[in-house]
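Reading a protein record of the kind used here takes only a little practice. The record below shows the convention in full:
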Amino acid sequence: MKLSETGLDARLVASLRREGIETLYPHQVEAIKRGLLDGRNMVISAPTASGKTLLATLAAHRQLAHGRKVLYLTPLRALTTEKYQEFSRVFENSERAVSIAAVSGDYDDPGEWLGRRDFIVSTYEKADSLVRHRATWLSDVGLVVIDEIHMIGEKERGPTLEMTISKLTEIIKDAQILCLSATIRNVDEIAEWLDAVPIVSNFRPVPLIEGVVRGGTITLSDGATRRVKATGDPLTAVVSEGLLGGGQVLVFALTRRKAESYASKLAEVIPFVAQLSNEAKAELERIAENILESEPESPFSERLGTLVERGVAFHHAGLGLAHRRLVEGAFRSRILPVICATPTLAAGVNLPARLVVIPELRRYDSHYGPSSISVMEYKQLCGRAGRPMYDKVGYALLIARNKEEEEYFLERYVNGEPEKIYSCLGSDRHLRSHILSLIASELVKSELGLRRILSRTFYAHQFGVKIIEERVDTILEFLEENGMIRRDDGVSATPLGRRVSQLYIDPLSAIRIVQYLSDERHMTVTGMLQVICMTPDLTDYGLARIRRQKIERYIESVIDELVEPPPDPAEDPEGYEFFLDAMKNLSVLREWIDETPERRIYEDFNIEPGDFAALRERAEWLSYAASQLSLTLGRKSLFKAYETLTVRIKHGVKNELLELVSLPGIGRVRGRSLWNHGVRSLKDIEEASVEELSRIPGIGRKLAEKIKKSLSGVSSSSEK
């Protein structure tokens, strides 16, 4: 079927053609024939790069033409941005103007402004937050697309996705639901849950060949074998071969340390840059320089920059946003030949390669010990093999150490089926949060209504209603005992419960914060930080490498400022370990708001930029939550104190710089430079000339003009 036969407007067809789409694949035709454009719910399982997003585009076009909105859910911010850019390109020239927005984070924003948008791309959690705030425009949504629906089986984030789907189907009963994934074994079961049509396809525009490498031999899924050039190291051999003729390679490692180790090893052995043009070499040097300049100086940035200059990079959650964008951009533009990445890359942005190599399948988890990755995760990694428009075939290879491993890998992984997806909603931790949200958002007003919605979850569909109903009473009692709900005439949220739900924090975190806020004693800044660090919402952010003795010495130094002393390690070893983890986070955050240089923080605490950014972001949100809960409890002085602390965490500054960092382009370094040169308030900036400001280190004329202009805007608006 040709695009012109789908009923799309001519301009949209032209936009899709510019994306390289001319005709439809067989599963796309099947979806249309089985009701995609008639509003039928669908669960579509098809390989990566097989055109699932096009089906979402077709369904979206139909709903937009009828004046309905589209809500597109993704698991990651990076994917949200990518989809926003993709749909913006596709719809920019359609006959009807389509206004598109991408949203994530800021869970206390009700999102009413999104009512002025036609197409909203959101992370799972942000969509859940919008439901909790009962955004009025949700009733105008005609299509809900859930990208990566297999995430419903992920133990941490799956319950949020599952409950968000259940809530949305309750709020907008006539909305079309479209679920997309590359790897679902029990498609029929999910389709049955959602009253949807299952569409399953193995078609790939770039065929995938899987196999196992042992020594100098590759054994493929069909039993055929081929030789690779013997180098003594299978990884080096297959990567070298994968690069021939302009190929690119993704090496997936199961730990950050391994990803960096593989990158260093390959850079030493393979002369990547020798195969590049002079222009490509110069571009790699430029990207390496940008890596050093885009984030504060650190040994981490230096390692990454050095490797990129040699044609290989590592990629994992420790990378800061700027680093990730530079590495991904270099690979996408085919300047960078090899990336050694953790599996988070496969779950995120679309970065295909000719060859995917997975040297190991076993990982170690601090909670569960050693384990092998699932077949589903393996298939997700393989899905990155094969670049449309560049490769005729994509290859995914495992590396076996012996014959026994080779046979096992072929049987279980290469020729195996992904595991079934199971709901993870059953834990009390997830249920208490989502039950509170159902009550606080007034989606349910009685216990009967609550049980009715829970009976429609995937968990109830798989395991039966009785199991989930047995948990409801216990959780309702817990929420009532802690002042979050009332059970007088039906069920309703208290002001505290409603605010906790809107703030998108674990009720247990709120209980702990409220416990400290209710204490009338004075709290120091260290004590205020301890309050948020002692919540289950602030977990370990790559700080396991900090030596125990160092943290115990730190605890001794601040013991008089703490709101809660450490438990006795002999009597409560588990509680003591949790306390140590909390104090690790506290010590890093304290250094940050005291303006310790970032490089020193990285070195002293052995923390990586991505982890540090995640810690700051979560701590900032919890500090904001504490300020809002203080307001709810009538503790106005603590509200103000936490409001100030929130800004300090955001910018990493002492109190004296708060006024200066409110200006555009002024962060902790430039703010301190202004302060040290006598410019210490907005009034000082107003009185200083552009020339005077531009002479201050780190400012310059362009920024000085921008600051002055922004200040005149503030003044004129305040006069009005």
